[in-house]
Design a protein that fits this description.
Elements (H helix, E strand, L loop, with lengths): L1 E5 L11 H15 L3 E6 L8 E4 L2 E5 L6 H16 L3 E5 L15 E5 L13 H12 L1 H4 L4 E4 L2 H10 L6 E3 L22 E5 L9 H13 L4 E5 L5 H10 L6 E5 L3 H10 L2 E4 L8 H8 L3 E5 L4 H4 L6 E4 L4 H13 L1 H15 L4 H20 L1
Parallel strand pairs: 1-2, 1-5, 2-4, 5-6, 6-7, 7-8, 9-10, 9-12, 10-11, 12-13, 13-14
Antiparallel strand pairs: 3-4
Helix pairs in contact: 1-13, 6-11, 9-12
């Protein structure tokens, strides 16, 4: 099968994140079974026009800012030349409206849509543009099959107008060789609260900082470690200074995979305060490393954290509730051990092989529908 995959970024892009890992883990397994996969993505500083990653051929066009303008022409031209059997569009930025110009079997993969949360991240003009492009999805993609990564995202696009029988839920996998418990390591002596992820305004990492003064009063030897990079980092550092807690907060910036996993294994609790996610993969990664998660009771996160069983949820933005949950986890060893045991078992349910296999089943369904 010849597959044309389109997404704003590929794995070589310095800004690549969970959505790119998700696509790569699925479609490199398509390559392993003998399929040909071509990936159209945007360019970035220092990149080449053509590349390859895990057997997937990469063709780049435009930039992150212009990709939605340059990609349609490239996609049409390439499909005329190579006659693909399947088009896969990953919508995690701005939709490319591929049904308007590619008349082939089409699968749309959606980690999550921004909705109104985009106004937390960028200026009103750009946010309005993204918001409005999403509003057209139910009309332009009305006859298309969607694969989403959580029940929350399925509910979201269903409410927007996508028919329920056009939606398939396929949970993310994870790399259990990388993310695992290391019995030779113990938790840090110092109670450690962890955040791992991109440092973007819409991720609401500031909420964690704002609850730390209360946490530090109750648990004076605790510390907060923020792992990751992003354009909101300088603002968070200023906030830590303003709150008078900068000596108890560690900003690591970008770290290697080995360092990331070490933080996940040795910290006491992983916090995810985002208002919306597709799934919350870092929660599951932390679980696999033996660390429980406290997360917002928000779309996606409530799917990856089973409240009271594998971790704890708090109402988004409720700083008092979040502080109480963190303090409870750090003080109550019996609770922490029970949740940790369940979290490790929960994480074992999610593998990339299973994710890819289920996607292959969805692809077969897409092609059969188109043939009929």
């Amino acid at each position: 099968m010849k597959i044309l995959l389109v997404n704003w970024m590929d794995m070589y892009n310095p800004l690549a994140g969970g959505a790119e890992v998700h696509l790569n883990e699925i479609f490199r397994r398509f390559v392993q079974r003998g399929d040909e996969v071509t990936f159209i993505s945007s360019g970035f500083k220092g990149c080449t026009a053509y590349d390859e990653y895990d057997g997937i051929r990469i063709i780049r066009t435009g930039s992150r800012e212009t990709f939605n303008l340059t990609a349609p022409k490239v996609l049409r031209k390439l499909d005329r030349k190579e006659n693909f059997d399947l088009i896969v569009e990953d919508i995690n930025k701005i939709p490319l409206y591929t049904p308007l110009y590619l008349k082939k079997p089409l699968l749309v993969i959606i980690p999550h849509l921004f909705g109104s949360t985009v106004f937390r991240e960028t200026n009103p003009l750009l946010a309005s543009y993204v918001y409005l492009t999403e509003r057209l999805i139910p009309y332009i993609y009305r006859n298309v099959m969607f694969e989403v990564i959580s029940k929350s995202t399925a509910n979201d696009i269903n409410k927007r107008g996508i028919k329920e029988d056009h939606i398939r839920i396929v949970h993310c996998g994870m790399d259990h060789e990388t993310y695992s418990v290391d019995d030779t390591l113990s938790k840090f002596e110092q109670p450690t609260i962890l955040y791992v992820g991109r440092i973007k305004r819409y991720k609401s990492v500031d909420v964690i900082l704002k609850v730390m003064p209360e946490v530090f009063v109750k648990i004076p030897d605790a510390r907060l470690v923020i792992v990751g990079s992003g354009d909101n980092l300088p603002e968070l550092k200023r906030l830590a200074q303003k709150l008078g807690i900068s000596e108890k907060v560690v900003f690591t910036g970008f770290v290697s995979m080995e360092e990331k996993v070490d933080w996940m294994r040795r910290s006491h609790v992983n916090v995810n305060p985002s208002p919306k996610e597709g799934w919350g993969l870092t929660n599951i990664e932390a679980n696999a490393c033996g660390t429980i998660a406290v997360a917002s009771d928000a779309d996606g996160l409530r799917d990856s954290v089973k409240d009271g069983e594998t971790g704890l949820l708090f109402p988004y933005g409720d700083q008092k509730n979040l502080a109480d949950k963190i303090i409870q986890i750090l003080r109550n060893e019996e609770l922490r051990e029970r949740l940790t045991k369940n979290a490790i078992k929960w994480a074992g349910n999610f593998t990339w092989d299973k994710c890819a296999r289920k996607t292959m089943e969805v692809v077969e369904e897409v092609i059969e529908r188109k043939v009929k």
